[in-house]
């Protein structure tokens, strides 16, 4: 639907129609899916409909989508969530998708490439080839869903991360050796629980003496992304922030930074493909961790 043709007085009628379409079966092609979706509100401690989630998202601020990388079902769900929120809010143009895989120094090439894609001058495979020249571009193919929904609803794609080579300085020699011009003003190390979980996750992959450097790099990434988003806080855009879930789990890392420094509301969603989960894993998924608490504001599960 072309929302630009809708007069202001008919927005409520349009929204009702969209709600009906969403609640029936995700009729819009963007919503087409054979997966079973469940949404759990960790504050209300109950299951809600996807439509309830879409309408609960504030019109401004940040919606952080904590994901597992390179998983078709997960990235498809991200596209569905973005499209669902935009449709529920009868919103077009005034939104931004902020993606962890894109670096903020590369914004000019991101803008050029996305503009070519929106004008249908290049294909999605060419988009990834242009944006990921130093890696295997088609690894990112599941993320086509984000680009397609951004094009359909006339939004923007923005890089929020720092280049890998800057982080390599930190992992090798510590953040003190990084050019101070590249360190964000809000730079701070994550809290004790975040550090505890990080050490558990990385201990089998990095020598003990290097763990502090890697935690600095992890915290640096959170700080850089938070500052990148903060610089957009004067706009009325709703920001959809797509990051690896460790950056957002338990509302820590990036989410903690956003809630501390960004005046606009931050909402977190943990997206999980539970297709291979056992019955016990499914039952325990929605329980708060006894030490760390709820994993996100909402848990969005996909079951194929």
Describe this structure in words.
The chain is of the alpha/beta class and 304 residues long. The chain has 11 helices and 8 strands. It has helices at 11-25, 50-56, 72-88, 107-118, 124-131, 144-152, 164-173, 192-202, 211-230, 254-261, 279-284, and strands spanning 36-41, 46-48, 61-67, 95-103, 156-161, 238-244, 266-273, 298-303. The chain has an 8-stranded mixed β-sheet with strand order 2-1-8-7-3-6-4-5, sandwiched between helices. A hairpin with a 4-residue loop joins strand 1 and strand 2 (46-48). The longest helix has 20 residues, at 211-230. The chain is globular.
Summarize the structure.
The chain is α/β, with parallel strands linked by helices and 304 residues long.
- How confident is the prediction overall: mean pLDDT? 90
Assign the structural class, choosing from mainly alpha, mainly beta, alpha/beta, alpha+beta, or little secondary structure. Answer: alpha/beta
If helices are DSSP runs of H or I spanning 4 or more residues, what is the number of helices? 11
Determine the fraction of residues in helical runs and give it as a percent range. Answer: 40-55%
Poorly predicted residue ranges = 1-32
Count of structural domains = 1
SSE pattern: HEEHEHEHHHEHHHEHEHE
The CATH C-level class name:
Alpha Beta
Largest sheet: 8 strands, mixed
CATH architecture: 3-Layer(aba) Sandwich
Compute the number of strand runs.
8
Q: Give the percentage of residues in beta strands.
A: 15-25%
Give the overall silhouette. Answer: globular
**Radius of gyration computed on alpha carbons:** 19 Å
Q: Could you give the order of strands across the largest sheet?
A: 2-1-8-7-3-6-4-5
Oligomer: single chain
Distance between the termini: 28 Å
CATH topology category name: Rossmann fold
